[in-house]
Amino acid sequence: MTSTTHPASPATARAVPAARQATKVRYGILALLFIITTINYADRATLSITGPALRGEFGFDAVQMGYIFSAFSWAYVAAQIPGGWLLDRYGARRVYAASICLWSVFTALQATVGLYAGMVSAVVSLFVLRFCVGLAESPAFPANAKVVASWFPTKERGTASAIFNSAQYFAAVVFTPIMAGLTHWLGWHHVYLWMGALGIVLAAVWMKVIRSPAKHPSVNAAELAHIADGGGLVHMGEGEEAREAAKAKQDTRAHLRQLLTDRMMVGVYLGQFSINVLTYFFLTWFPVYLVQERHMSILKAGFMASLPALCGFLGGVLGGVISDWMIRRGHSLTVARKTPIVAGMLLSVSMIFCNYVDSEWLVVGLMALAFFGKGIGALGWAVVADTAPKEIIGLSGSLFNMFGNAAGIVTPIVIGYILKTTGSFNGALLFVGLNALVTVVAYLFIVPEIKRIVLKTA
């Protein structure tokens, strides 16, 4: 890999002879984002894997489990706006490192649930610790979007966003069997301890590796020019966020008002909420569905859940590739983003048909098809990178994430009440599948042309 001292501005970078081969540092940055996001989602999914064991040990009922599942999202949603402000003020490097470290500590502490049963119930202690994990994770995805907007030109951004977003499925492919095995052979406590330790190591790696493109020592002038000429915000690094905010006469309330009254963003927010209904079903109740409704063992459910996750991962990467390919073929950004989203979410409706089949392989096959479609359609973060005002990428991403992850509050609780009322997952699958259609409606009839928003000045 060539390493040269690069100039301070993209204009100078463009003067470099075209014959000089560009470095590929941005792919290493994307790989790190993918790994961290994989651990992020694995930590969210710990409770879904250990849930049956915890229910057996502490006697949680379905509604209590629903509220415990939702604890993460109450905090995650509430902290999105402050988290976005922190990202714009202090930069992704420092804020994300602190986020990774804190959520890993709170993940490890969940292993202590039950040790202080005389002082506080297991329900309350687990709810509080899950709440703290959500609070700590709140800057994660806005930081991912900020880094992608900085490191990737527009024509590569769909694939880059799809890759880091597909980590949610890869986490299930890799860690669901591992966590199920740990629970089965060593006990549920070990899941939280090992995942917490892994996250703390990654926080140190992030601090050592990450820089903005304009400051990274391994980026040469040719790569910097490639990113900048294609629309990458190459100076969006440590300290630059604060200067951009000052130039824009930062008024958070006015900026929020503009985003919340923009028709395009309203449709995007609604679509992301409905997409995440599927996400949180998978992260919370899906393994319980396999154990309770389909009578699988915890170990078998862990391995069975990995197949839909693998299909979701493949669909997630494919959706971004298709979208960027359409841009290169001359299609508009709007068509290139909307087409995979609509087609993918229509495929996701197939999960409803699980209510009408009995064989395990058909159930898993239909779920695999549904999550393959969901993966193809999960391009919301690419849309954020395409539309966010450059001065407030962190804030814009946080607002998007807030609406999307409100589904993490609603979905586990609604499904918990459906189970308590009906004793069956049939209504739950109908609720989740119909939300896929809501996303289709949002992108076809509410979201107009997809383009970057320009902040209004006073």
TrEMBL record:
Q: Which GO terms describe its cellular component?
A: plasma membrane
The annotated topology with respect to the bilayer is:
Multi-pass membrane protein
Location within or outside the cell: Cell membrane
Alphabetized, the UniProt keywords read: Cell membrane, Membrane, Transmembrane, Transmembrane helix, Transport
Do you know which Pfam families this protein is assigned to? MFS_1
GO molecular function terms here? Answer: transmembrane transporter activity
| UniProt record similarity statement | Belongs to the major facilitator superfamily. Phthalate permease family.
PANTHER family from the UniProt entry? FI19708P1-RELATED (PTHR11662:SF399), SOLUTE CARRIER FAMILY 17 (PTHR11662)
Q: What is this protein called?
A: Glucarate transporter
Organism (species)? Piscinibacter gummiphilus
Q: What is the lineage of its organism?
A: Bacteria, Pseudomonadati, Pseudomonadota, Betaproteobacteria, Burkholderiales
